[in-house]
Design goal:
Strands 3-2-1-4 form a 4-stranded antiparallel beta sheet. The protein is of the alpha+beta class and 153 residues long. A hairpin with a 2-residue loop joins strand 2 and strand 3. It has 3 helices and 4 strands.
Amino acid sequence: MQDDFYALADVIGNRLQSNEVYLCEFTAEQSDFIRFSQGKVRQPGSVEQRYLDIELIKGNRHTAGQLTLGGDTNSDQERVTNLLLALREQLHHVPDDPYLLYATKVQSTEDIGTNQLPSANEALNDILEASQSHDFVGIYAAGGIFTGFANSL
């Protein structure tokens, strides 16, 4: 996901016009869910969600929008480009914001956690083994959470 985010940030940066600044935030999750009832698996599933928030700033005017991403590089890049064009068009119609304030100090950080969790199959097997002959009810939920922030500064 990190490479996908970097690619999308590059798309935005490469399409900026003079005096434009962008801020963007990426949030995503890849999670497995299993619902148990009466000691049996009742509802297994997986979720993958990706979102990108973009704020476009020019002078004291700014607009913002959000996309739900699909994970397909070409499609996501096209959708980001279209959102950027729409935000640019909106800039002409919004007044100056006298309270606009955003950090302009360049600072880069990175924190990559390690996933120490068992796979969903391992967890499922352990749970079913431990709950044999019990009226077990519960929900298993685990997975990765991803966040990123980029800007043109």
